[in-house]
Amino acid sequence: RPLIVILAPTAAGKTQLALDLASEFKGEIISADSRQVYRHMDVGTDKIPLDKRKNIPHHMLDVIEPTERFTLADYKQMTEKIIDGILDKSSIPLLVGGTGLYLRAITENFLLPGESRNLEVRNRLESELKEHGNEKLYKRLSTLDPEAAKKIHPNNIPYLLRALEIVEMTGGPKPE
Questions:
Q1: What is the model's pTM?
Q2: Which of 25, 57, 88, 104 falls between 20 and 30 A from 6, CA-CA?
């Protein structure tokens, strides 16, 4: 699953680089900024104005009121759905921002509260990975959950292990 990640501090040029890459590679930009998700918080967040977006779709901007609760799990769940939608359109998602925790939750596939986990299954899968390699695990995933396998690159170990863990815990594919 292709994903371009741009992480840098404020005023480093992330926005322009993201716009250039999105134009070049038919991409869509997903904000990874913990303040840009809030509506009405344009000043001080350096949220890109509509007229500067060059008709490139932008996501995770203005999604919640400042008075509402918004967690890392909310961000991860919403962003993963957006990434899937972008990839379904054969576009490239660009995850752009300075909130490292948001970026890591996506790129490292954090397990967050509310997501089930089975350490026994996970430990066994990690042992199998070390002993047999990711290709063998990927072939198993392709058999057990072909739809998940289509969305996961064989070298994306965290996603591969999580998908197999879900299949083994539930007896079927990850629910949508």
A1: 0.68
A2: 88
Reported as a pLDDT band with limits 50, 70 and 90, residue 106 is very high
| Over residues 38-45, mean pLDDT | 87
Q: The tokens of 152 are what? A: 């996961």
| 112/72 Cα distance (integer angstroms) | 8
Using a 10 angstrom Cβ sphere, with 0-12 exposed, 13-18 middle and 19 or more buried, the burial of residue 42 is middle
For the chain, give the number of residues: 176
Q: Report the candidate in 169, 170, 165 with the shortest Cα–Cα distance to residue 128.
A: 165
Across residues 32-54, what is the average pLDDT?
A: 90
Under 8 Å between Cβ of 40 and 66: yes
Q: End-to-end distance of the chain based on CA atoms, in angstroms?
A: 17
